[in-house]
Design brief:
There is one protein chain. The protein is an all-alpha fold. It is globular, with a radius of gyration of 20 Å. The protein has a domain of about 250 residues. It has 15 helices and two strands.
Amino acid sequence: MLSLVYISIIATLLTTALVTALIPLARRWGLVDKPAGRKQHKGEVPLIGGPVIWLVVVTGILIFIPNPPWRGIMAATMLVILGVVDDRQPVPAIIKLVFHIAAATIVVMGNNLTISDIGIFNETFGSPDFATLHELIAVFAIVLAINAFNMIDGIDGLAASMALLALTHANLAFNLIHGATPPSYAVFTALFSGAIAGFLMFNLQIFNGRKVFLGDSGSMLIGLIVSNAIIGASQDIAWVTETAKIPASLCLWLIAIPITDVTIIIIRRLASGRSPMAPDRTHLHHKIMENGFSARRTLLIFILSAVGAFWVGYFLTIQFGEAISIIGFLAFIPVYYFSVQWACSSLGKISNPKH
């Protein structure tokens, strides 16, 4: 346990040092986010969260984890490069989607990261006869997570906090169900959590006035990392979890908020005849802020929601089984969306009676 704390602290300190060193270079190279249109922040903010987190995590994997997942590192590197290019000069959405699929395919085919356990129909669905379907579902899940974290990255700390909570809850589930987290999994999550914590100190300006953003490189990277981590946690993949695993249905609840956001936004865009990849300000966090909530309070709402969603999912899974957990999750998406909209609208009217 103490060694995990050291790994996390080292990752945090290394992230802090790299961000400090790279801020001047980012400004010199033009890797900054300028306020315009949908972007309402102040000043030019360096977009170096992604490259820094990538460098810290990859370095840590090479040092602390035996038999590193090379294909996963390759896929992560590809997405970071794509994101850096996109942060400087927007890349068409269809091209980004092609790269997302390519990165997911590299991981699935190279590291055998398939989904053969979906929590239901295990005897039938888990058959080797469906091996190709297992791979396709894994690719879809990874691509969905990449886009979910990319799309939810609309206010300070949101995407990073959702990623941090997802892996924290995965570790908690391992401990609650099996009494311990598999060693290699614990090392990786400590490493990733430390890197995220270091980034958040700058992104949320906790200890200094130097602000940085994840950028597309960072949001896509953490989507890839989180999806790989939770798939590995729930499937029979020896290099990730050795022996123990957590229920597959519980993994949906680990990233319930990003999935809810991306699902609702895609439905809304398709219903209005727009491309599901087209950017706008109709995300749930935008709707909440339109009702008078600050960015920090909106972030707190999502953090509390993610914590609550995990415990709801854990209770349903353990007490009633995975089938009920999946049904509960499908119900959670519209219920959460409309509940938050109603609650924020009501509170907004109370705090701003003239409106």
